[in-house]
Amino acid sequence: MIRNEAAGRFELRLDDGHVAFADYRLRDGKVLFPHTVVPPHHEGQGIGSAIAKASLDWARDEGLQVVPACSFYATYMKRHPEFHDLLDADHRERLGL
């Protein structure tokens, strides 16, 4: 897993040469995750979850609040209470937490 600052995304290079990734944008002490891509033939293998966990661990280390604009991130964060404290207030309410 790498954080590609130039591209603004977290990337995971897969064995077959494809890349799964999650885009991010930094804004005023927050990190926005607008889009996540896992190649279709790799879906259901936990790749998106691995990217989400690594990027959320990074957000915690950086002291950032998280805006899960991507539905995958919103669902992942709702299912993983260990990351609830990272949610910005608006999204915490939207997710019913």
UniProtKB/TrEMBL annotation:
<feature type="domain" description="N-acetyltransferase">
    <location>
        <begin position="1"/>
        <end position="97"/>
    </location>
</feature>
<dbReference type="Pfam" id="PF14542">
    <property type="entry name" value="Acetyltransf_CG"/>
</dbReference>
<dbReference type="InterPro" id="IPR016181">
    <property type="entry name" value="Acyl_CoA_acyltransferase"/>
</dbReference>
<feature type="domain" description="N-acetyltransferase">
    <location>
        <begin position="2"/>
        <end position="88"/>
    </location>
</feature>
<dbReference type="InterPro" id="IPR000182">
    <property type="entry name" value="GNAT_dom"/>
</dbReference>
<protein>
    <recommendedName>
        <fullName>N-acetyltransferase</fullName>
    </recommendedName>
</protein>
<dbReference type="GO" id="GO:0016747">
    <property type="term" value="F:acyltransferase activity, transferring groups other than amino-acyl groups"/>
</dbReference>
<dbReference type="InterPro" id="IPR045057">
    <property type="entry name" value="Gcn5-rel_NAT"/>
</dbReference>
<dbReference type="InterPro" id="IPR031165">
    <property type="entry name" value="GNAT_YJDJ"/>
</dbReference>
